[in-house]
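User: Can you help me understand a structure? I only have the sequence.
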Amino acid sequence: MRVRVLGCSGAIAQGCRTTSFLLDDDVLIDAGTGVGDLSLMEMARVQHVLLTHSHLDHVASLPLMLDAVAAIRLSAGVPALQVHALPGTIAALKTHIFNNVIWPDFSAIPSADTPLVRFEPIEVGQELKVGGKTVEVLPAVHTVPAVGYAAAAESGYWVFSGDTERNPAFWQRVNQLPVAMLIIETAFSDREKDLAQRSKHLSPSVLATELDLIGAAQRYPIYITHTKPAETGLIMTEVQRFDQMPSRVDDVRHDIRWLSAGQTFDL
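Assistant: Let's start by predicting it. Here is the structure, written out as tokens:
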């Protein structure tokens, strides 16, 4: 499985695109502004979108992508794009975006029987079969209903935390998986740790305690994502500072790396 990082920033700025990952060429994990770097034909090849939650930085490109490829998909007669998300996320999209006020309701265009998009509800613990891939829905702890994902690949699981704060249930499940790589958010610096806690994001000091929950036998690269552009430099410094110290529970150093848009991984 090839994973292409389309966007991994917590906000927009020059060179910063918000969260989206392309698995092979047909499955999107989230649909942030990074989707805009795909060509029309690349967007048209996407058959499944798996959303972590309803916040704008993770869904902004979904309505725009549907509009961009509508004519291509209709002329080719391909099935409706399937958007997999928690019921609360689907309700938010229908109420606040695909409501014929902010954007057309593509779940009824060109007709309710043959729409451009179909919303498929998911639940934590569910194992999805999408595009020949197996993806498990993982728990997340955020201000709105949210999940993470674990996608099975030849070398192990690609694991994405989604937006989350402290999350023991996530680690309980991840420690049962043969993980090839973990992508985990750290949105704010410790300078903003109170804001991080209120908005249910991680800061470096809390990330350190979360990584202590990794099983003693588990060793894999950990990629930091979702940093706020104005905070990225400070977050990097703070993460590097704690990463130079052995873990407080098993005297190991974690293999922490930095994610950037444009990276690809073959797993």
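Now, to help you interpret it: Helices lie at 40-45, 56-59, 61-76, 87-96, 168-174, 193-198, 204-211, 232-243. The mean pLDDT is 95. Let me know which part you'd like to focus on.
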